[in-house]
Amino acid sequence: MAEHGQRSVPHAQADEFDDVELVHPKSFLGKYVWSQDAKVIAIQYGVTAIAIGVVAVVLSILMRLQLGFPNTFTLIDPSSYLQYVTMHGMIMVVYVLTALFLGGFGNYLIPLMCGARDMAFPYLNMLSFWFYLAAVIILMASFFVPGGATGAGWTLYPPQAISPGTPGVDGGIVLMFVSLCVFIAGFTMGGLNYVVTVLQARTRGMTLMRLPLTVWGIFMATVLALLAFPALLVASLMMLCDLLLGTSYFLPEMLNLGEPSSHAGGTPLLYQHLFWFFGHPEVYIVALPAFGIVSDILATHARKNIFGYRMMVWAIILIGVLSFAVWAHHMFISGMNPYFGFLFATTTLIIAVPTAIKVYNWVLTLWRGNIRLTVPMLFAIGFIFTFVNGGLSGLFLGNVTVDVPLAGTYFVVGHFHMVMAVAPVLVLFGAIYHWYPKITGRLLDDTLGKIHFWVTFLGAYAIFYPMHFMGFAGVPRRYYGFGLTTYIPDSIQTLNAFMSVAAIIVALAQLVFFYNLVRSYFRGREAGPNPWHATTLEWQTEHTPPRHGNFGAELPVVYRWAYDYGVPGIKDDFIPQNLPPDQVEKSEPLAQMSRGRLSL
Amino acid sequence: MTVTLMLLAVMMVLFGGWLFSHSLNVRPWLAQTADVEGGQLPPAVTAPRVGLAVFLAVVTSLFALTVGAYLMRQEMGHDWQPLAVPGLLWWNSACLVLGSVALQFAWQAARRDDGPLLRGGLLVAGGFTIAFILGQGLAWWQLQAAGFYLAANPANAFFFLLTALHALHLLGGLFAWSRSVFRLWRGATPRSLLASVELCACYWHFLLLVWGILFALLLNS
Q1: In whole angstroms, what is the distance from residue A299 CA to residue A284 CA?
Q2: Given this model, what pLDDT does residue A20 score?
């Protein structure tokens, strides 16, 4: 069945939609460094994001060491603890998850899945990565400036973020905002490519409603990011002005060591509005690609069409639109008008409807499917569990009266780690296991993959599930130590130690994953063009890994949607999107029936 | 924030509605049996045009958010002192209008393959745009000289921020404009420059509209 990729199937005329000018460099630098090939750019994004992600994991382990075994490690003092918290959060949310889903998988999959040669603007796409790399370097540099990185918390709220006494106020906070501005400029270049390629560069027959859900998810997430990141950009510029030029956009009049500051009249609440106007869509910028990818993994490995494709598409669109109307649920305790609280609690609960539709559809896709418990499938199923858990705790926090006592506690930490850290990361792993054979031509080792999955999945629950109970007990987040706080029982410390040990084990389990990546690259089993017997166009390329230009001399023509799995009466249990109806082989009894030899 | 939210809501609803309309009366699970239809956008909707439209949406979001912040800060803070808007801004506005008109002529000239008019239109447009940016710089200097320092009041700070953001976008436009001028100077035919001149003209018109809104806002605060 893997030969489907090699079959002679109709193609679009070579120059029909082939208006992207491809640059085919000959030198090593041109091919692998200054490359304009979206697949190379995707790998550059992926490697950079994973590298910076390792830094963020190390920071989280340092935090856990302090929390689990307080004051044991002299390296970790209160200031550095706050720096770890801040940098871990910002790196993970923006520089890892956003970059990996959109820059990594977006670049690799959009042109291939749409049947395009490359992104619409390859040069701009290349620039996008170099801006991203510059942003990462600037951010990392903040560890080495006097005073170190900022310790303002990942939300960087004023006035604390730029006031004396906060770690990193000398230079770290400046580099953080500069890095964010550079990141946003770079992302805009990449985002333009993703949107325009999906809208404009689809091959013949690839209608919007034949796009795989992966593309739908990445596409809508990019639209959100393009419209939401400007809020962070404006907020960053205004904060830099407050800090460096003495303006008072956000800073109110304050006393510092008894002396009045030079600022007056600024409103920190304005920053919160701007930040969360970006911050909440950011949740869906991470979640929507994960939704799309997990849909495709589930359908492929359950050998069944996705349940309710149109509903899935509508849900993605609706979630995208609604995600701009829920930001203030992050600000229930900011002192805003209580009627606003009611309004935003309502919109928050409404957004749960399309989200729940997606969850039901994933489960119904699995129902009576021919489920193959491959490693990508394990991660996809793990995602459903985790997302449901994280989503349900979100219903608690979306209600004002429940949120007020839980805000600022470990319940919030547990919630958002389940819903937008562990869940999307499980999808990222699933996606890497799923598409690694296309990227490298070799399969990842199955046993190592399963070890990686089970330790990561169970370990993540061991870390983040207890946080919900700690939140109920009122344990506040972001604290270096709890001292003799009377209302926190001793058992919390035991729980913290347990969670820290679990975190170390999960972190070590990632070494298995990295070993698998490297070992399989050299010694993994040959994958062939289509090891999962998948229908989408990236598995039907002439070469594996696909070469620059993706599809050889001619672009494929698409005849069907991406979910023709287990179609009754068909010989194979999948039909590639580019296989014409007259070349679809029927199963033997049906073929005999059509020849009139079999009567029922 | 209400301003921003309404604008973004309209943009998202229009876009979501367009996407939604493509999913109605579609049965994606049915394979194509006859000749494969395109499924793409009409040929006139080229990648650069779509790219510009998407970029303008991003810029709209950026300015809408900044204006939203302006209005919120004006309402929430109690230290807002209206700015004495320099009269020079009227002259600057006239420059930007003329720049935009000149680019419109250049666009028409490229369509008609009229080299001299295209050259003239591009140069006049660039000249007026540079004059606008220099004029904005002069207005900054006048404000500083009159004691309206950046940090003295949030109204001043927002004036500097908004005009700087707008000027930066114009500078980006001038980069694209300079590429067209360079190509024309190197002997490119007017017809071959049509696509880039068209994008420049649309971008200039958009930034003129943005400036109109910003100027009206500054005059009325």
Answers
A1: 22
A2: 58
